[in-house]
Design a protein that fits this description.
By secondary structure, the chain is mainly alpha-helical. The chain has a single domain, classed as hpI Integrase, Chain A (Orthogonal Bundle), CATH 1.10.443.10. It is built from 10 helices and 3 strands. It has a 3-stranded antiparallel sheet with strand order 1-2-3, covered by helices on one side.
């Protein structure tokens, strides 16, 4: 009885049985740590720029892995993969055209805008530097110098390899960037409707991503008083 098995599986998940560790957010401070680690990593300059562009794009774009990673590391379908030509670079804003077939949710095309931040961590500048070194317009946006495409697994493996040894690396994944963006946005008191818009969510499920820092929670006593 497949339906009954699915029902039991759902009940077990709701009760917390066999639950996987909750994924941790890649916060802005951890993003800066990744930047420093990337600088001292064995990756060549080309790959460092490409990976840093992928990190900042994933974070500031509130992206799902399917929206910026290639389905495979060895081949790609141009109809399902974010390409170099899908990026429009204006004077202060980079626009990613994510079609429904390339990961757009609910079968809708969408444009993700990444504006210049004016800070050391800037999605616009990192994309700008990466695009200057991209050889082909019809290739996946995030491609290593040796021709391998950045897929979800490689992206996650690279992130885990760059994280500090003190981190529990099992709780970080490609989705940690989207979770971290929502968490940081809430911490900066960006309104819920805007977080929902940035995350391209049709429901309030984005609220499940937000993991309030303890210092933010501690401030509520004085606010309430």
């Amino acid at each position: 009885m497949p339906l009954l098995c699915l029902l039991l599986k759902g009940i077990k998940r709701a009760k917390g049985e066999r639950a996987k560790p909750k994924r941790k957010p890649i916060t802005l401070s951890l993003l800066k740590t990744l930047k420093d680690a990337l600088h001292f990593s064995p990756f060549i300059t080309y790959d460092q720029k490409m990976l840093w562009a992928a990190f900042t794009t994933a974070f500031f774009g509130f992206l799902r892995a399917s929206e910026f990673c290639s389905p495979s590391q060895s081949f790609f379908d141009p109809n399902r993969t974010l390409l170099v030509l899908d990026v429009t670079l204006l004077s202060k804003v980079a626009i990613l055209n994510i079609t429904a077939s390339k990961g757009g949710q609910f079968q809708k095309d969408c444009d993700v805008r990444l504006a210049i931040s004016g800070k050391s961590v800037c999605p616009f500048r990192s994309l700008q530097k990466h695009l200057l070194q991209c050889p082909a317009q019809d290739a996946p946006l995030f491609t290593f110098s040796h021709g391998t495409f950045l897929n979800r697994q490689i992206f996650t493996d690279v992130v885990k390899s760059l994280l500090p040894q003190s981190c529990d690396k099992t709780v970080y994944s490609s989705h940690s960037f989207r979770i971290g963006a929502a968490t940081c946005a809430a911490e900066k008191e960006i309104p819920a409707w805007l977080i929902k818009t940035l995350g391209r969510s049709s429901s309030n499920s984005f609220e499940d991503y937000i993991q309030a820092p303890s210092n933010t929670i501690d401030k509520t006593s004085s606010v309430l008083a």
